Amino acid sequence: MQEFLLGAATSAYQVEGNNVYSDFWLMEQAEHTSFKERSGDAVDHYNHYEEDIRLMKKAGMNAYRFSIEWARIEPEKGRYNDGAIAHYRKVLECCHENGITPVVTMHHFSSPVWLIRENGWENEKVVGYFRDYCVYVTAQLGDIMEYVCTINEANMRLQVTSVMRTMLKNMGVNLQVGMNFELPEEYAVGEREISEILGGVKKANTFMAPCTPEGDLLIMEAHEAARDAMKAKCPHLKIGLTLSLHDIQPVTGGEQSAKEIWNEEFTHYLPYIQKDDFFGLQNYTRMLVNAEGELPVPDGKQCTQMGYEFYPEALEHVIRTVSKELELPIIVTENGVATLDDQERIEYLQTALYGVKRCIDDNVPVIGYLHWSLFDNFEWQLGYSKKFGLIEVDRSMQERKPKESFYKMAAIWKTAHTRRDER
């Protein structure tokens, strides 16, 4: 029987530091940027990965989801960086040496600047560009990879589009990623500045920019093209993608609204993932909806640092909903909470993990849980203030300070099994 994958997740841009060829790095440096602070050295995981992976082993984890930075691998179109490939081989080897199964993400939001100069994720050429990058990485590293997520939260661009519509209606905003909607007065100036830096493109179509329906489908075409080409190169690889999903709960009169939102978040992607080997499920909270759409968090409910509801029960609900519509093994590739109180994180973990175990007991094929995140890291436009991590980092010294939750996670999972076995 396959060992359950229990571990944590990161993304390259949020933890490595100095991803100078990435689109977000360019936007951070703009004088009138929407980023509240710059990523800089981040938590310097690029140089501290050995220490970090050994810590994971010490905490009883056996899996690590991390991403490969496309812009490091291909800083200029068609020119690959041998040094970057060598680095990621070392990361993979370190995982294996420590009994950690690597779950590799090929694209986690950030893209090479050259891609954005060519209209980014609205340019149909992105399908071939992404496929070729994935094939190159597979040719170099596929022998020591096993699980691969092509694209992180492939529905994020559509969710950002939906949030923009919601904001226009002055309703609640529920987005499971760090975007800054408190934009400076000079934001329009910053947009023009970035456009000039990119060579005059009218809009920076990054992976966090609102998309057209055609742009949404381009992402799925890129996924399919990459998946098929990588499998052809290395048939042993288990390949899927990840989606950001809410536990959508209708209140009186909201049933049709809930169905439409779920279709946008999940159902309409089903034709493109039937040939995948697993599904990466990412959830943080629930969404209450009425006939008009999403509702704000109810008065009196506990909220996270991100402003959405503290609701770890959502994970079990979403797993069960997905399993009714998709017959694939499920890996929870992200689930967690932004909080300054680590006891809240422990509470969140306990509720979420017990829910996962109940799903498994009911024969739902959940094969892994990867907590977001391993570190308190760079939460995109919101900077370093949001604390998702199992490990605190003193960035002045890059000193790792594991929290109680870091060591508790494996124990909580073990207890969930023991209590079930005793019944």
Automatic annotation (TrEMBL):
Statement: the UniProt record of this protein carries the keyword Hydrolase: yes
The record, for Pfam families, names: Glyco_hydro_1
Asked whether the UniProt record includes Ligase among its keywords, one would answer: no
For this UniProt record, the keywords arranged alphabetically read as follows: Glycosidase, Hydrolase
Query: So what family is this one in?
Result: Belongs to the glycosyl hydrolase 1 family.
Q: What is this protein called?
A: Family 1 glycosylhydrolase
Which organism's genome codes for this protein? Blautia hominis
